[in-house]
Write a structure and sequence with these properties.
With 322 residues, the protein is mainly β. It is built from 3 helices and 26 strands. The chain has a single domain, classed as TolB, C-terminal domain (Neuraminidase).
Length: 322
């Protein structure tokens, strides 16, 4: 197993933006977005951010609530899961237009968390804000009829998600409910809006930290998972685990920032890079003082030339509804 040190890419510049960065996602060959889920422990808002490799700038666009995910659309906007709504956010005029509302309406104390785009559909989960009750939902927003379908109602903190197509026309949905410290998979039939019983893919209970965000190696053979370590540590860890071997094949460290939250592939000057977000959230003052880069964004460049069009097929934009 190789251990690679990810380098500092961005200090967001304030404790509010360092509090809970997640969800990096490629926009084009030199830009990516990320979400600040919450601007501090007592804040009720977050933001979409756009980082530009060419000049190192980061633009922040405050949202009307706390976002769980934000993905680019085919019209230069973002589809955002915010509080209990999903909608289109236009960064140019800061307008917000929900097209799904009332997510998790049968329970209280949850908000939308992680998600993904697949073949025009959205798959996302919610989280219990107290991180203790099995009441958070897992959802499919099905584009064909614009219906919101609840797949589960018994998660605590629905986090990293990855999809692989199956030969039978359905897909395998890989999913993390963070407190379980496991990755499970379901056969998801989007047309019928159903999943089968979960099957365990990875047991991460022997790893230090809680599994948070997740992506996949571009060959589809391994999962890359950031581990959120709430204890004092010199660095954070993001691990690559083989789907067949179930062994850790590689890890990336984030020096001075133990609470790694989310990994994702992006492009920089025509080359593939891995961006890892980290967080300040819940750090006591003593631990914060010892974690000088907490809440920073990190990167590791593969040095490998890559075609952005290929990356876009793996990490697609969302097609807006007319």
């Amino acid at each position: 197993m190789s251990v690679l040190e990810a380098g500092v890419l961005l200090d967001p510049g304030s404790e509010s933006l360092r509090f809970l960065p997640e969800g990096p996602y490629p926009l084009d060959e030199n830009r990516f977005s990320w979400v600040a889920i919450q601007h501090g422990a007592s804040s009720s808002v977050g933001s979409v951010n756009i980082f530009d490799f060419r000049n190192g700038s980061n633009q922040t666009y405050e949202l009307p609530g706390r976002p769980g995910f934000a993905f680019p659309t085919d019209r230069g906007n973002f589809v955002v899961g915010c509080e209990r709504s999903v909608g289109i956010f236009n960064p140019s005029d800061r307008s917000w237009h929900p097209f799904v509302q009332g997510v998790d309406e049968q329970v209280s104390g949850t908000i939308i968390n992680d998600g993904l785009v697949w073949d025009g559909n959205l798959i996302f989960g919610t989280k219990d804000l107290e991180f203790k009750t099995k009441k958070a939902g897992l959802y499919l927003w099905r584009r064909s009829d614009r219906q919101l379908i609840q797949l589960r109602n018994d998660q605590v903190c629905s986090n990293g998600k990855v999809i692989l197509p199956r030969e039978d026309g359905a897909v395998d949905l890989f999913d993390i409910d963070s407190p379980t410290r496991k990755v499970v998979a379901y056969r998801l039939d989007i047309e019928s809006g159903r999943i089968d019983s979960e099957r365990e893919v990875l047991d991460l209970r022997s790893e230090t930290g809680v599994p948070d965000g997740m992506t996949m190696t571009l060959d589809g053979k391994s999962l890359i998972i950031s581990l959120y370590n709430p204890e004092a540590a010199a660095y954070g860890r993001t691990i690559q685990v083989g789907l067949t071997s179930r062994e850790v094949e590689q890890e990336w460290t984030t020096l001075g920032s133990p609470q790694a939250t989310c990994p994702q592939w992006v492009m920089r000057d025509g080359k593939l890079a891995l961006v890892i977000t980290t967080a300040v959230e819940h750090m006591a003052s003593s631990r914060r003082a010892a974690s000088g880069t907490a809440g920073y964004l990190f990167q590791w460049s593969t040095g490998r030339p890559f075609d952005f069009a290929t990356l876009r097929t793996l990490l697609p934009v969302f097609t807006e509804i007319s």
